[in-house]
Amino acid sequence: FDSLGSYKDQDGVTRSEFLLRTDKVMQYNQIIPLYDIHATAGLVTLFKNDKQTPVDYYSIPNLPKVDGAVQITGDSMYPILKSGDIVFYRQINNILENIYYGEVYLLDIQNDDDEYTTVKYIQTSEKGPEWIKIVSYNSHHSPKDIHLSSVKAAAFIKGSLRLNSMR
User: Fold this and answer.
1) Three-class SS of residue 113?
2) Parallel, antiparallel, or unpaired for β 68-71 and 32-35?
């Protein structure tokens, strides 16, 4: 303790012997990279290439551990998520073993020669354990059963950010 009743803790942060209600103890906040998913040509490229250059960074207090953030487009999860929202994701390496049914995921899906990225709820499929049902919040989009082999990349959505003003 110094003459003002303060001391440096083990992290080098100055603390007061007498903390006030307004005193904030700063905790570690992760720096989250924002990627341009359109520039990387989808999740597969983003997840495989660790040399992607982020376009910006965020630091959100108390956000669970995430791998990055992307800005989404489309209305399949409206009004929960809107086009332009930023979602914070955690990459899933083995979707069959690490999926939480009923949660929202960022998915890279390949059908025949078409590949697209989407944000959907994942539910169990009646077709069996090798299948999942992707479901939109927006009722204008129909649920669809897809085989897990069609999912080329997946990420669990841990949070989102919505900007309500252009500047």
Assistant:
1) coil
2) parallel
pLDDT in tens, 42-66: 788 888 766 678 999 999 988 999 9
Residues 6+ apart with CB under 8 A from 116: 108, 109
Nearest of 121, 108, 112 to residue 38 by alpha carbon: 108
Asked whether residue 7 carries a pLDDT value surpassing 60, the answer given is no
Q: How far apart are CA 153 and CA 167, in angstroms?
A: 33
Q: Average the pLDDT over 16-35 and give the result.
A: 66
Contact 96, 148 (CB under 8 A): yes
SS3 category, 125: coil
The residue among 81, 88, 44 whose CA lies nearest residue 64 is: 88
Tokens representing 114?
């078409």
Count of Cβ atoms closer than 10 Å to residue 47 Cβ: 21
- Long-range contacts, 137-145 (Cβ 8 Å, 24+): 137/76, 137/77, 137/78, 137/79, 137/80, 137/81, 138/75, 138/76, 138/77, 138/78, 140/75, 141/76
